[in-house]
Amino acid sequence: MAHLINGQERTTGPRVSVLLQVGQPTQLDPDPPSHAAVDVSDAGDLLRPLPSPAAAAAAADPPQLGRHLLRQRESPLHLGSCSSNAAMNYIIGAFKAPCDVFITFADERSRKQVAIKKDNGKTLMVPAFQSLETIAGEVSVAPVPGKRVEHQGVKIELLGQIELYHERGHFYDFTSLVRELEVAGEIYERKTYPFEFSTVEMPYESYNGTNVRLRYILKVTIGRPYATSVVECRDFCVRNYTPLPSINNSIKMEVGIEDCLHIEFEYSKSKIKIKNMELEIRRRESTGSGPGTYIETETLAKFELMDGAPVRGESIPVRLFLTPYELTPTYRNINNKFNVKYYLNLVLVDEEDRRYFKQQEITMYRLQETPQSS
User: Which GO terms describe its biological process (predicted)?
Assistant: First the structure.
């Protein structure tokens, strides 16, 4: 094909325009290189890429355009996030206690500490007391800075409670003493209140078993007129000591009628091959009464007495130290709620793994510790 350009005749080939396009540019993309126009002219010309109007506008100032559109997109979300966080903080603050409460014992540093297990499995060290001791200390109330605490009175209670685990959250109070620390009013700054419970009768030892728990606590309550009361509790342990009982004379029992009838069985041609013999200490805990009684038996200790066959007439002395085991005194019908009894269980095992046992109840009591034993 011949054309006249600037008075000169020039032969050119066919002119074809091709548009290559991949995808659509988004509004937030600063420089979308996804499409271009290619001009295919005569054989003597090179392929020249022709940018599209959108690509040219984006290439002119890509970062500013992208950031501007992104800010327009994000600004409503950011404001909504701030408002939701503020609302959440307001809700949390409404249920948060307006003050901190601390309970301390008067002789806490010098008093013996014992370990008790909490519901989460962790061990907590608490002071130990005996029955008829005086329990004294201080309660400190520290308001949150910038806030005042309007209350209807501050009181402290000494409670002895029994909790059955199948009735979790329901406590039976067998001891309850109350002291009023302050009448209704307002607290603007940290205040300290002394308290004292004189010669408190605490008849039962603290106990934390499988299905039942017996505990002693100090409970501080700050009544509030239009909100939930502020409650703080502090555990302590009670250990009561018993004097050594007198030793009774041994008792022998026979089945039959004296000087008249005695029954005795003898089996001939019988053999029993003993493999080992062991002594066990078992604790039996029973809660409830009647058909609703729960019984849990736990083996606390095993002591091997013999390994192999015994010799006829042989005597085996036994001395079992109880210090390594977590034992408590025997509890008998505590507040008509539970019993804890201990048993010695003698077990014989033969070569065919058959077990023969004899069980005898024993009574546990706690002696006053001496400096040598401690």
Answer: intracellular protein transport
